[in-house]
Each structure stands twice: as C-alpha cells, then as structure tokens.
Design a protein that fits this description.
By secondary structure, the chain is an alpha+beta fold. The chain is 25% helix and 20% strand. The N terminus is likely disordered.
Length: 539
C-alpha cells in the first residue's frame, strides 16, 4: 500500500475512533481532563536559549513562536503571511524593486513590546546591527551578509539594500534557522555584545504570550501578552512540559496530563488508536534525518570511506525496523514536495562494493576483526541526542551493520541542548559522525549547510564541506528569482553532494501529532514552527 495513503487511513481511523470513544465520557461539554483555557504541551526537549540568534534546537524555535513576532511568518504550508509587517513585499506592491536589490517593508502602527515600550522599525535595524556585530557569537550569518545596508526612515518603515539580488531574502524577515525577529533595542542596544544578555533566557515578548516562569528541567509557563497586536490570545495559559524520557512523555499523553504531543515517536504511533479523547493529525514535514560526516576527521576525509559506509548500511531496513516505516526515505536535503526537488538516486545497499571501496582506500582486516592502515585502526564515533530511543536503536543497528566490514563504531550521545550548542560537538567539530535532524525553511536555499563560506562559527556547514562546484551552484541559485533556473542549479548541486557524500540523507518525517479532541485550531506546520498560530489556539 502507498505509505501516504496508509498514513492517511490510519490517521482517519484514529480520529474517528477518538470521536466515538469520547462521546460517552464528556462532562459539561468537554473531556473530564480538559482544563478550559489552559493547554499543556509535552516535549522531550528543553530550549537551549530563547534568543534565536544563539539558540539551535527545535524546542527553542517552537517556544520562540509563542513569545516573539517576526515581520513575516510561514503558515502551516510554508506560505508567507504578514506578521508585524502589513503585507508581504512583492514587485506588485512596490516592496521589491525591479532590479531585485531593494526591499521596503511597512510595519503595523502602534506595536508594543510586552513591557509597554514601542516596537518599531528601529528594533529590526538594531537586530541587523547586532547580527553584523563581530562580538556577537551569532549562530548563522547566511543571507545577512548579503545586505549592504538597512535603515529605518521612520518608525514603521524598513529599507534594505542588497549587495546583489538574493532569491531567499524574504526568509530573513520570517522565522527559521537564520532569520531573527526584531529584538528590543531599548533593552539591548547599550550592550557591547548580547551573548550573555539576561534577555536570552528571560525575554520580553512581541508575540501572543509572555514567559511567566521557566522551571529549568521541568517546564515553561506562558500567559497572554496584553500588548499583542492581534489582541489577547484565546488561551489563558500554556504549560510547556519538558519530559526527556519519551516513554514517560507518551504515558503523560495516555493519562491526559498533556493535551498536545507533536511528533509522536514511531514506537508509540500504533498505540494511539488505544487512546480516548485524542485526535491524530499527520503531515509530511520538512524535518530530515541524516548521517553527517565530519570531513575534518582524517579517516572520513577520504570519500571512499564515506561512500563505503553509505553503501554498507541497509537504510531501508533501519527505516522499516526502527522507525516502523512511517517516514519517507530521502535522497537529498530539499523537501520532496518542493518545486526544486531534485532527481537523485539512493545509495545502493552494496556490501561487496563497500568492501572494495575500503580496500581501495588502503584498509586491511586485522586479526582483531577491525580494519587497519599502518598503526591506525578504523575507529569512529557516532552521536545523536539522548531524548529519543529510536535514534539510539538506529545507531546500534548502524554499528552492528558496519562491524562485519571491520569498522569499529562507538556510540557517544549527548543531551540535545549540548549536542547543538555553539560550544557543543557539532559546531566545534569535535565529532566524527552525527545522527540528527535538520529543519528546512520553505525556500530550497541550502547554502548555509554546504557552502564553505558558512563553516562554523559563520553558519551550519558542520560537515566542513569545501567544494568549488557546491559553492558555485549554491551561490548562483541565490542570484536569480527564476524558479526554472534555480531548479537546474539545485539539481547540479545535489548531484555533486551525492557524489561527495558529506551526508547520507535518511528520511523526511511523516509527523504524527496527538491532540486533546477538545482543542481547536492547532495546525502543525510543514516548516519550522508548529506554534505559528498559537494566538488562535482554543480549548
């Protein structure tokens, strides 16, 4: 059966089952466990910070969606919609100049921060200056360094001049990995840098909610922002419960101590049909799991070793056994539903080919069962977050499958907030192989991941790939707004990435979200933020 069809049928069955079971248990018009006006969100991760300039985790992205507003935002299908801006800049409304090098944004009038201070265009211009301040350890600069200048001629107008056309520039006005929303100049502008500003852990708000309390390791509590421009949100409280153990997290859903669980683990999806009072929503989302190689490692610097690992692992078996076949196998880092999705083959499962590659690279089997080259043993580490048992199981499978080849793979895992921290193993290059998820914005630009210009600390190229073809194609794709031309360039780029093997693209996540059936208007997003419309949530 087609996987998407099967997922849709399962989701429909779950939803219908929930409606049938809850019909006999409702009290006063709602489920007995529902707290009207209060939503409890369960998540295995805790934010690693709340200033998006420095925070790296998905939990930070989601929480920032509750408290920080952007000029633009993405809806649940990845379309731009205005947020603090009055409209999305375009050629038709004059927001984009004919030469593609000037952007004019008009902000709403009367905006305020949650402390009552005016929120103006000058806050965004300050944010731009903070990104460009070399003292700030900003996690990513791609896109920002294409801006020649930015100014605020008045309190509701921003004018951005680009060095050259940039087809993805509107993404900087929204919210994704490198797009930073306006930060409060009246609090931060006087600091020499904002790396350790109190705001980073206790921000004031421009979004629908205020962070009332952060109980580190346990929960974050949010209440309405009285100055939010749309008016007070429907909910009176959101409790973000941090439950690192995914079995405990699912039990909290089962006992109805959480109302929302976004991204139910693959091991638990089949159990959802047993729960009453739950609606299940499925959506293919732009989260892609991959095995990434650190090309700084002398062993992994040899493409033949990377390709041998890619061909020596049975990826479909891991997807079917560990992740129960719920996710869609990937061939690139461009979302398969994107207009730019390339045509790339998967690496074949070819144990004999893997052995031949390792032999060509000069590795020979020793009496101890491991490959050797001179005095060196082919020993590597693989790292993922400690928050999801399926990922650890997948590592064990990879370890087991590579052992017969003589590859000694050791597992070395970290809490997610440590793994992705600016001083953590990924961004400092102190890892061999990672097993992680990346999150795409709707635009297919991926220069921040593969262009050598964006090796940390300047960006997210944590594989340290440096290749002239990838650099050229990723740059040229930014210089044109023509989709046909960009698609051709991304095809060339992805073919080259496939050849170089800095990463093995494993799956695109088919996300299952379990929601209290009394809750309305939660719309999980294909891109970046499931909290994109939190002002409209109701229960």
């Amino acid at each position: 059966m087609n996987l998407k069809l099967a997922a849709a049928l399962i989701a429909t069955a779950f939803a219908l089952g929930a409606c049938t079971k809850t019909a006999t248990t409702r009290v006063g018009g709602h489920n007995p466990w529902t707290i009207p006006g209060e939503v409890r969100v369960g998540n295995s991760d805790e934010p690693d910070g709340l200033n998006p300039m420095f925070a790296h985790t998905d939990a930070s992205n989601q929480v920032d969606g509750l408290i920080l507003a952007s000029l633009l935002k993405y809806d649940d299908n990845g379309n731009f919609i205005p947020d603090l801006a009055t409209e999305v800049p375009s050629y038709a409304n004059g927001g984009l100049s004919k030469d593609g090098k000037t952007i004019t944004i008009h902000m709403r009038k009367g905006l305020r921060w949650s402390d009552g201070a005016p929120l103006t265009s000058k806050d965004w211009v300050f944010t731009y200056s903070a990104v460009r301040n070399p003292r700030n350890n900003v996690k990513a600069l791609f896109g920002w360094d294409d801006i020649a200048s930015a100014n605020a001629p008045d309190n509701t107008t921003i004018v951005i001049h680009l060095k050259q056309p940039n087809s993805t520039i509107l993404g900087l006005l929204a919210f994704d990995g490198a797009a930073y929303p306006p930060l409060p100049a009246h609090i931060l502008a006087g600091l020499p840098d904002i790396n350790r500003a109190p705001f980073n852990g206790k921000p004031i708000s421009s979004g629908p909610f205020i962070l009332q309390q952060w109980n580190h390791g346990a929960s974050l509590v949010f209440v309405p922002n009285p100055y939010y421009y749309r008016g007070p949100p429907h909910l009176k409280k959101i409790i973000w419960k941090v439950i690192p153990n995914t079995s405990t997290l699912f039990n909290e859903l089962q006992t109805h101590d959480v109302d929302v669980l976004i991204g139910v683990n693959e091991n638990d999806i089949a159990r959802l049909s047993q729960l009453s009072g739950i609606t299940v929503i499925t959506k293919l989302i732009a989260n892609w799991r991959h095995m990434e190689f650190n090309l700084q490692n002398p062993i992994l610097a040899d493409r033949r070793v990377r390709l041998a690992i890619a061909e020596g692992v049975d990826w479909k078996q891991i997807n079917d056994k560990t992740y129960h076949g719920y996710n869609q196998l990937a061939v690139s880092d461009i979302f398969p539903l994107s207009w730019a999705a390339p045509n790339i083959p998967r690496y074949p499962y070819d144990p004999n080919g893997a052995k031949a590659l390792l032999a060509q690279a000069g590795w020979t089997m020793g009496s101890d069962g491991w490959l050797h080259k001179g005095a060196q043993t082919l020993q590597l580490t693989i790292s993922t977050g400690t928050n999801k048992q399926e990922n650890i199981q997948a590592e064990v499978q990879v370890q087991s499958q590579l052992k017969p080849f003589g590859i000694n793979l050791q597992i070395r895992n970290y809490p997610v907030n440590v793994l992705f921290a600016p001083t953590g193993p990924l961004y400092t290059g102190k890892y061999d192989i990672s097993w992680t998820v990346a999150i795409n914005a709707p635009d297919p630009d991926n220069s921040g991941l593969w262009n050598s210009k964006y090796v940390p600390p300047r960006g997210g190229n944590t594989s340290h790939l440096s290749d002239s073809i990838v650099d050229r194609t990723s740059l040229q794709a930014l210089l044109t707004y023509d989709h046909a031309a960009r698609k051709k360039l991304y095809q060339q780029e992805e073919e080259r990435i496939h050849q170089l093997v800095p990463s093995v693209f494993f799956y695109w996540e088919n996300e299952y979200t379990a929601v209290n059936s009394d809750m309305k208007n939660l719309k999980p997003a294909a891109f970046v933020q499931d909290t994109w419309n939190a002002w409209d949530w109701q229960i």
